[in-house]
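Loading example: each entry is read as three labelled lines plus one structure line.
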Amino acid sequence: MNRRVSLPPMNIFAQIFYLLRKEITLEWRQKFAISGILLYVLSTVFIVYISFQNIGPQVWNVLFWVIMLFASVNAVMKSFVQESGYRQLYYFQLLHPIAILLSKMIYNSLLLLLLGGLTFVALSFVAGNPVQEAGNFALALFLGSTGFSITFTFVSAIAAKADNSSTLMAILSFPVVIPILLLLVNLSAHSIGLLSGSDVGDKISLLAAVDLMLVAMGLVLFPFLWRD
Amino acid sequence: MKKYWWKVLGVVILFYTIFVGMLTPLKTGITDASPVSLRTGRSEVLTVQGYNSFFTKEKEKLRAWLKMGSDKALAASRIEVVDDRVVRLTFDIPAYLPVEQKVKDFTLLIDSPVDGASVLPGGIVVTQDSINTALGEALWPNAEIAKLHEKAAFTFPFRNILSETIRNTYYHVPLWMAMFIILTAGMVMSVRYLWKSNPDDDRKAMALTNVGLLLGILGLITGAIWAKYTWGKFWSWDVKQNMTAIALLIYGAYFVLRGSFEDPEKKSKVSAVYNIFAFASLVPLLYIIPKLTDSLHPGAGGNIAFGSQDLDNTMKLVFRPAIIGWTLLGVWIAEIVLRSARLRDRLMEV
Amino acid sequence: MLIASKKAFATLPLLVLPLTFLLAQEDTDFMRSMGKMYVVVAVIAAIFLGIVVYLIYLDRKLTKLEDQIKNHE
């Protein structure tokens, strides 16, 4: 943070955009963090591949989401936990808490979407691509990365308040995310052809509704965490 | 006394549910009929085992049918009562079935003025050698099933796999409902804490969640016992079982979170936020996900819902008070936890 | 609170699970006799046992508090 920073704008949307840009440039400058996560995904996929060798569609589906889950926790964990006290104080005085939370959530969604894409490519490379309905799968991936990002970002904000936050992060976030995970595995099973049925639309809208509700809860509750 | 009335009420209600729930007899049912498989064109004798039946009383008025759908019914040609529990029915089965299938299942129906009507749904299978639907249609009678009797006494319904365990509806299901009510109350207390910053509200949330966890664990254990003897396994990977396990994990995490703070105000605030967030992410799904996927529980995946047939009026008389009773008892326990938490916090202050 | 809640987690299932385990070991015909009536009995017993275990945990917590108060005085 040696660079001179221009004063952030007052409008919430402009603030979100400002924070998002800052987040991306920061990430770009310290490439080791993001490359670490990408390497994590690649090595997990490889470990999974050498231990299973023959991966059927059902296992593929579950493995994809489990790898995604662990990579996401690792990727998102740092969003609040690693923020230094000074920087928080600086944000606190200048920016609206909603802008802070939303920018983090959007940034993490993008990051997780990238991670999901990479996991998909890597897993398809070693174990074949069982996806039949690409559109559905992409939608599941999108809703999944936003859902994971929302939950994990918020939980990381909670965990950051405690002392041993990295352990707490997993304990707090996994049970909360299981319902979303169940829906996701179910939804992508449809796109792989493991399940058939006409209620795909229902599940997609349910997942979207859950994502929206969690964002709303996060926005309502975050100011209480932030004001401290 | 004025202060304790709701505690007394809770205990009285629970006593009532145990008393009435255990002592009320079940309706008459059919547990077994052999042979299960019959053939067309023969006169077959079925030996039927009754449950809670009194076949010897008014045995001349006993009637029995093999029923298919709503328009085919074959009356028994001869009824021989062996004793109160066993009756032998003779059916003269026509040469052809009225369906385009080799094998068809029939429902056995017995009516007695004393016991009322009892059924064995789809329990008897009739096999034919060749198919002739037209002839079968003509040969199968549609005997009139009229003036079925109702058992006069106050009884609970008889279901074949459940039999007496239908009473667990009063001891297992209300735990789950009470847990839901109490956890909701805990969440409301967390909201109130964030709103008013009164430390007592957070203690209330903690106490209620603690009891909710207890009820959840009890619900899971009782459910597992019941499942073992009706579905065959303690843990059947049923959606509701899994969702309850997840709920317990979430609230377990809540207490771990509480434990990881030194500063009481920070602890209260952060755990209240987590409580609300976790509740919001979990509870709607507890109701939606079981409806989307197959479940062994009633009310999901094509199973009959509570209220339509499984929970008849006599059962509601015990089931609904049981929910209130467990909730009141839960609040009582939570109050004790709350009082001890207050004591501890006051001790910390000094 | 951490210690207390940890104890609740550890003791509750530990003390109630042996009951179900015992029941599973027992002759299944006994549990299924009398129209599976003993399953209802087992369920009620499990609830009772669970509440008793919880009461013991509460009791111990309160005893500790009382001791602290006594030491304080």
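Residues 1-9 of chain C have pLDDT under 50 and may be disordered.
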